[in-house]
Design brief:
By secondary structure, the chain is α/β, with parallel strands linked by helices. Helices cover 42% and strands 16% of the residues. Strands 1-2-3-4-7-6-5 form a seven-stranded mixed beta sheet, with helices on both faces.
């Protein structure tokens, strides 16, 4: 996939999410080098709860993509937590990706794929390595704080994902510690200025202009 798609940097101001013409943003959009019926724009969404309201938003994203690229996209939705019962009733099994469900999307997308903890359940206990998409689905839907809490903790894709997550967390932690140190320095400086000001005010011999300079 990495050889076929690129991220359209011009349309993602400061984030990894693409902004559509109506001001809304998708989480991720992959664009083929050559767009045709075999290689379509791919919209990827990560959603805690998939319900009617979210599906309407997903339809909007797909219509925006159709307008921009002149072809209906494929949308892949990672359901992180729950699928509303009224939405799940519309699910059909995906022939192309058995680990996903699909919903009817004839007029707004080429295909709408939904991956959830439930849809990947029967594809976990298999011989050999996990399908990378299933491993990615486990990473998002199981929400395990440690890889050892997962049923396939030895899988190479899962190991890689947790290594990336650990590195990213450490980088964020280091940035936070650096920010805290800067804030502490500012606080210490202001505290010392405050003490100096109080000391000046309490000294009757100090002229007024000295007090104002201290402040």
């Amino acid at each position: 996939m990495s050889n076929l798609f690129y991220l359209p940097h011009a349309n993602r101001p400061g984030t990894d999410r693409i902004e559509w013409a109506n001001g809304t943003r998708s989480d991720l959009v992959l664009i083929p080098d050559v767009i045709n019926d075999e290689q379509r724009p791919l919209i990827i969404e990560f959603q805690k709860t998939v319900d009617k309201k979210f599906i309407k938003r997903a339809i909007s994203y797909c219509l925006q993509a159709s307008s921009r690229y002149g072809i209906d996209p494929v949308i892949l939705i990672f359901c992180i937590d729950t699928v509303a019962e009224s939405t799940e009733e519309k699910f059909e099994n995906s022939v192309r990706l058995p680990c996903c469900a699909t919903i009817p999307c004839d007029f707004w997308a080429e295909e709408c794929l939904i991956l959830s903890k439930k849809t990947i359940k029967q594809h976990i206990n298999v011989e050999g390595s996990l399908n990378p998409l299933i491993a990615l689905g486990m990473f998002f839907t199981y929400q395990a704080s440690a890889i050892t809490l997962l049923p396939r903790c030895e899988d190479p894709t899962l190991v890689f994902l947790y290594e990336v997550a650990k590195k990213s967390f450490q980088e964020m932690q280091n940035r936070d510690l650096s920010l805290l140190e800067e804030l502490k320095n500012v606080y210490d400086t202001q505290l010392q200025d405050y003490k100096n000001t109080l000391s000046t005010i309490q000294t009757e011999e100090e002229p007024l202009h000295t007090i104002t300079e201290q402040i």
